Amino acid sequence: MLFGTVEYFEREIYNYLNENQFKKISEDSLYVITSQLKKEILYDFVCDERIRLECLENLTYAISMISQSKEAI
């Protein structure tokens, strides 16, 4: 799985939820995870700006997909 793909971010989000023993996906937990990942992309990850923007778009899409699946449960 390549860093920055939608699948990568989905996996990272679910890993964070599991590691922190969240029983349920909530808006608050998604906000915390998203904020942390955005911070890493914006300030810790050294890359071309085009790649950074693509990562942010993929993160947004991954969060959207997880939020939609949460609502379907």
Written description of the protein model:
With 73 residues, this protein is mainly α. The protein is built from three helices and no strands. It has helices spanning 6-19, 27-44, 49-72. α1 packs across α3 (49-72).
Distance between the termini: 26 Å
Oligomer: single chain
Shape: globular
Taken in chain order, the helices and strands follow as HHH
Number of helices: 3
Poorly predicted ranges (pLDDT <50, ≥5 residues)?
none
Give a brief description.
It contains 3 helices and no strands.
Q: Secondary structure elements and their pairing?
A:
Layout (H helix, E strand, L loop, with lengths): L5 H14 L7 H18 L4 H24 L1
Helix pairs in contact: 1-3, 2-3
